[in-house]
Each structure stands twice: as C-alpha cells, then as structure tokens.
Amino acid sequence: MDIIINETSVKFSETTINKARKVLKERLSGYAIPEVLVGLEEQYGEFFDLLNRNVSLGESNTCILIGPTGCGKTALLKKALKSLEEIHGDDFICVYINGLFHTSDILVRQQIARQLGQQIKGLKSDGDAFDLLKSGTTGNKSILLIIYNFDMFAKNCSQPFVYNIFNIATSKNCPISVIGITRNVNVFNELAQNILSRNSHCHIDIDRLENIDLFTEVAKLALNLNEDAIEDGEYCKLFNEKIEEMFNQESFKTIIHQIFNTSTDFIRYFYKISFAPVDKLSINSPFLLLDDLKQSVMDVSVNIERVLIGLTQTQLWLLLAINSLFFRGWTVFNFVMVYEEYTNYMKAYVRKSGSNFRMKICKEYLALIEFEFLQSRKLIQQINEGKFQQKYNMVKSLLLPEQIIEAVTKNPHCSSAMKDWATRGLVD
User: Fold this and answer.
1) What is the reported pTM?
2) How many helices (H) and strands (E) does the chain have?
3) Which of UniProt's keywords are assigned here (predicted)?
C-alpha cells in the first residue's frame, strides 16, 4: 500500500520553492552540469586526466568519445570542462565544431576562426586564426577543439583537412587537444589510413547504464536537492527524505522498471515525465507527489498516442526526419534541417529503387505548414525567442524515438519507404 508523503505542516518561503523548481528544471532539461556521473567514474577519470595534462603540462593529444545516444558523453565532457575551469581558470580555450552543421573545410575553418577571434584579440582574418591554431606560440593558452558528431565531420570534410586537424595535435608549439564525440562505433572506418597511422589517439567507450540499480540512482540524484544551491537546509532535508520514501514505494518502482525495460533512452524519458510534477511545486505543495508522476506517465503515453494516430503522411515524414537527426546526435534543429533530411532520404530512396521508381516530395512551403502543426500539437517545442523566420527557429522534439517508430510501423497507411526509414533510422 502506498504511503502519502506530501502532507506537511511546515511552510516554506516562495523564494525557496522557486529556487528548488529552477534547479530541478535545469537538471531535467540538460542545462545543469551533473554533480555525479553514475557508472562513468572510470571513463571520467581517464578523460579528465587527458585534458588536465594538456592544460597543465602543454601535452597535445587526441581523444574520441564513442557511445549511443543518452549514454552520458556530453555530460562527461561538461563535467570535465567544469573541473578544469575550477582548477585552471581561463588558462584554456574551447572551440566547438559540429559535423552535422559544419559540413565543409571552409565552414569548419571559419567557425574555428570566429570562435578564436571572440576569445583572442588581434586576429585580422580567418586565415590568421587558422594559422594560429596550426602553429601556435609559446605564449598560447591550451586549446580544446571539441567536435560533436565527429563521424560526420570526418565524412564531410576532405581527408587532407581532417589529417591537418589531427596533425595539429602533434605540434609541440601549440598545446591542443582534439576531442571527437560520436555515436558511430565504426567511426575509424571514416578516416584514411594515413590519418590513423600518422597520429596517435585514444578512444573512450561509453555505454548506457547496464542495470536497473544504476538507473534508479541516476533518477534519484536528478530529483535530490543540494543545500548549497537552495540555501535552506531544512527544506532540502525534508525534500530529499520525501524523494527517498517515494523511491521505496512499490508503485514508483513499477514506473522505474517500466521505463528501464521499454525505453531506449530511459534517462531522458524519466526526465521528461518528471518535468510536469516539478513545475507544480508551490508553497501549498512543496514536495513532489507520486500521483503527479503517475499522471505524467499516463499523459505522455495516452495523449501522444492519440495525436500520432491522426497525423498526415507529410507530418509523419517530418517526424521520421527528426528521428534521423536525433540518431545522429542532433537534439536541437530547425525546419530547414528537417526538410533537407527529408528530401535527402526521398532522393536516396529513389536512386536505390531504380530509375523507374518515382516518389512525390512535398513542397517546402506546404511542409512548413505541417511542421507548424506538429509544434501546435506539442510534439516539438521552440527553444529560442523566435527572432528569426519561422523556418530558422530552433526547436526540440518532445517525442521519444520509439514513439515515432511505432507510430509509423503500426500505421497501415504508411508506405514501405516510410517503414524502411523508421526501422533503419539514418539517411545514408
């Protein structure tokens, strides 16, 4: 029998509740840097040691983080960078590249120059910035070149350019670490043999949590409060005690097991169902309620299923394109990216099917209307302030990959082309 854990005669200030809500929302949305990396202690130690040697000793190196979506690659990187900043302050510079967005030598070079130009004064041109990255001087700060979707970077950029990027990390004049992040376990097949033989590199494999106990620990840490952030020791103590009691209840354990056993990205799914109950925290209800979490699980599953059943073919095509971007590691996107992913798949499918096969591609302005419909139904959510044209505004998906896949594969009206993309995931 479940225990009622939300009743309290103690009143807490509105400031305290607002701080708690803000801290938990930042954590559940992925903006906060995790204090503990459950199950990744060994990988974190190895990775941090590599970066620390670069900053403290000027030792250049290369490292590739490899693991499936939701395993903790980005969290591990963010925590390592935060620890470096606490120790070394601003003695290092981070330059960020994304292989999905920076798809040519020129775009990568310009992005490197732009980011260095923002942090190092006196650069007159893109060429000056890239030359600085290549040659360096004894007075340079350490540079961490972080490449998200490294497999796409290696595929889209020319091999000589990729070779030069790796070669920079062997320069004694320029303390630089090249850090690649990818979900593609075959990433080294994208690299030319001379790159692999000429440059030494390490790779760190990161897997999803292997058992329910570790997942439970992560879930509990996500909902616990830290006294340093809230500045109300009594509230934090009571709040965490309530969370502990809730995790010990059988009905909540059932929710945890269901998420772990049915979702391929169980951590993000748990964060998603926890968001609405956290948003309800108030002076009159200062603790998380088990009934709210149960209702959130039902709302997510029932409402989404009902909406997905009524979607048009074009809307489902757009969701499949969003899924394809997600499988590449691209969790934030805009309509232009989604439409390009959709048209690229359609063209690739036609080429694969033969010259006599024809498929009708939805016109861009019509697809944009369908995209806006998905947003109105809360299947995708805008994350910026909307200062740009609608098609350029950045959004994120509120669906899990398996929900999109199931909506397509179980729909008798979906074509074999759609079902093929749903089960295969990516555009070649």
Assistant:
1) 0.67
2) 19, 8
3) DNA replication, DNA-binding, Membrane, Nucleus, Transmembrane, Transmembrane helix
Residue pair 306/403 in contact by the 8 Å Cβ criterion: no
DSSP letters spanning 210-264: -SHHHHHHHHHHHH---HHHH--HHHHHHHHHHHHHHHTSHHHHHHHHHHHHH-T
Decide if 30 contacts 169 (C-beta within 8 A). no
Classify residue 359: in a domain, yes or no. Answer: yes
Q: Identify which of 104, 134, 130 has the alpha carbon closest to the alpha carbon of residue 117.
A: 130
Show the domain range for 287.
14-32+210-308
- pLDDT tens per residue across span 314-359: 999 999 999 998 887 788 889 999 999 999 999 888 888 775 667 7
Strand ranges (E), 39-122: 61-66, 92-98
Catalogue the E-assigned strands of 29-188: 61-66, 92-98, 142-148, 176-182
DSSP designation for 363: P
Q: Which carries the bigger pLDDT value, residue 114 or residue 298?
A: 114
Place of tokens 């900043």: 85
3-state helix, strand, coil in the chain (%, to 5): 60, 10, 35
Interatomic CA distance for residues 200 and 272, integer angstroms: 40
Rounded Cα distance between 91 and 283, Å, is 44
Q: What confidence tens digit (pLDDT) does each residue in 368-377 have?
A: 999 998 988 7
Contacts of 48 (CB under 8 A, 6+ apart): 80, 83, 84
Tokens of 66: 């490899």
Helix pair 14-29, 212-223: axis angle to 10 deg: 140
Top pLDDT among 427 and 360 is at: 360
Whole-number pLDDT of residue 29: 83
Does residue 255 contact residue 293 with C-beta atoms inside 8 Å?
yes
Q: Are residues 174 and 245 in the same domain?
A: no
Within this chain, do residues 48 and 183 fall inside the same structural domain, yes or no? yes
* Positive or negative torsion for Cα 246, 250, 251, 255: positive
Question: Are 364 and 329 contained in the same domain?
Answer: yes
